[in-house]
Amino acid sequence: MPDPNVNAPAYPQPVMSPQQLAALQQAAAQQAAAQQMAAQATGQAAAQVAPALPAAPQPPAQHEVVSESVHNQVREEIRIFSHSPLAYWWPVWLVGYIAAGISYYHGTDAPLAEGVSSRFYPSADVGVAFILTLFLVILITNVTVRGLASALVIMGVVLTAVLLAYFGMWERILTWFAGLNIYLNAGAYFWFSTLMFLTWIITVFVVDHMSYWTIKPGQITESFVLGASSKSYDTQNLVIEKFRDDLFRHWILGMGSGDLRIEAQGARHEEIFLPNVFFIGSKINEIQKLIATRPTEFGSPMIK
Q1: Is residue 198 included in any domain, yes or no?
Q2: What average pLDDT does this structure show over 115-144?
């Protein structure tokens, strides 16, 4: 069979002019722009009708790791000084200086011998007040009377002394004892108070600071200023007790002082008693923080 494509006549292809081609391209661009605008309008309408979806939960914020170490929160060490009972004797020199001023500025010159006179306060109340202050300080610092009994004993003595002085009965009472009144001149008050003050200063701020206890994380050490020996204990299982129940010795004379008992556990069990520690309330809080901190925690990063 003869091939139909053989010797087939050739038909001429249509030819478009440049104007027709440009018009066709412009029409196609307009149609694409119209379709895009229709799609945008459809999306906005659907967004207005559809409810707003809840925002996806944000992942939890990571903790910020800072390089602040434990020693910025806790002191590296704390020193504890145990004072002698002489630290409570400050009322003696204070009342003595007051009595010296009263006797000097409000007293009178009394002749003692030919050409010798001294200045005395004309009433025995000043001398009685000074002697009672000295007596009470000796009693409080040497006899331990804890709790309510301490307050009752001391307040009873002070109230009796004040009432007798108010009614002017001290001279009458002392007259019953063969006229043994209490009179001290201004010089006696001044020089006794000065010696007492110097002794108090040297004892409290020099002698009592010659030995002390240093508490660090993981260790408690007894140190001596003029000696090479020292004793150290581990703070693990350390038991600390605070005693501050003597009203007058701890709260009035000591202004917040107290006694401290430290019991070291472990291979070498020992009990350490530190009497008359000033400001024991604030120090016991620092001690508790230190003994709860291990040495390896110092300098380690902390999470905030």
Answers
A1: yes
A2: 86
pLDDT-based confidence at residue 64 (cuts at 50, 70, 90): very low
* Phi and psi at residue 96, to the nearest 5°: -65, -45
Residue 191, φ and ψ in degrees, nearest 5: -70, -35
Q: pTM for the whole thing?
A: 0.65
25 within a domain of the structure (yes/no): no
Half-sphere exposure of 33 (CA within 13 A, CB side): 6
Domain annotation covers residue 47:
no
Q: Structure tokens of 223?
A: 């140190």
**Residue numbers of the domain that contains 254:** 74-84+211-296
d(CA 26, CA 233): 96
Residues 189 and 221 in one domain: no
**Strand arrangement, sheet containing 211-216:** 78-80, 211-216, 219-224, 231-234
Please tell me which residue, 276 or 72, carries the higher pLDDT value.
276
Question: Rounded to an integer, what distance in angstroms lies between the CA atom of residue 17 and that of residue 107?
Answer: 138
The structure tokens 């004309």 sit at 122
> Do 140 and 279 share a domain, yes or no?
no
Confidence of residue 71 (pLDDT cuts 50, 70, 90): very low
